[in-house]
User: Fold this.
Amino acid sequence: MSEVLTDIQRKRALPRWLRGNDAIIIGALIVVALVACLTVRNFASTTTLGFLLIQIVPILLIAMPMALVIISGEIDLSVASTAGLTSAVMGVLWRDSGLDIWLVMLLSLVVGVLCGAFNGFLITVLGLPSLAVTIGTLALFRGLALVVIGDNKVSDFPEELTTLATAKIGATGIPIVMIGVLAIVILFGVLLHFTPFGRGLYALGYSPEAATFVGIRVGRAKFWLFVATGVVSALVGVYWTLRFASAGPDNATGIELSVIAAVLLGGVSIFGGKGSIPGVVAGVLLIGVVTYALRLGKVPETTLTIVTGALLVISVLAPSIAARVRERVRLARVHREVQRLSTAGEQGV
Assistant:
């Protein structure tokens, strides 16, 4: 009987690529983009494409290491504050040190390494929960940024770099920086899906104890993940500073909400052990398309924040609801088949 039920379920099941979260979110992205192109004035243009991609660059960059962190069963809420602290340090170094701008940017990235290592030490060595630690460092790093630069703004960065931060590839509307962003996305995609380290992160998310049993160094893996989020967040701080030609303690404020919403919307489970880079990229693009379309439609910024928060709630609730529905459907189907086979058996007797 079990073989018959298995065969029936196999025949009725959809192909795997049609049932995956990646396919669902990519399909939703295509539908939303088409609706926006048809209903929102000026959305279907190269100018819109350029502004949309520039808008999602910081979120897409931070979403890459954030996805790995959440898959491993942790979270980092301090990413935006790390970017802000990096921007503040970059501004002060450029204003006061007389160093070359490239050396200034390199030293600014070290800020991200230190921030990530600090989070990683508290979480992996002292055993503190990542949620509590990064809530604390969210405030700590933002406060340090204010101490470093005060209420001042530094804005006299080299024009060639600030121009490059928003320059486009010919008439395509695609920002030049997307080349570097694409390289980082590919790097994290390969790391997660094609290396033993990345595959081990799924085991970490399901069960750290089981991961340790099969030889994964849990503490070391998580430590380097937090260092990675720190470095990429610092890179975003540098980019943010050049894009707006302004260094200040409030740079990148609040983008951690959009990052986490995009990662969860892209199919990464908040409980760990599940997710993919293609899904996360689609999640980032979906939030970017929705928010930019609403912005073109003259929707107030407060409403955009509400939309982002709603998407975050939906991304957490939807997988749980879908799993419960699928389980009930499966049990009902099995029950019907058992009854049918039992009836057929009785009639045969």
The CA atoms of residues 62 and 260 lie 9 Å apart.
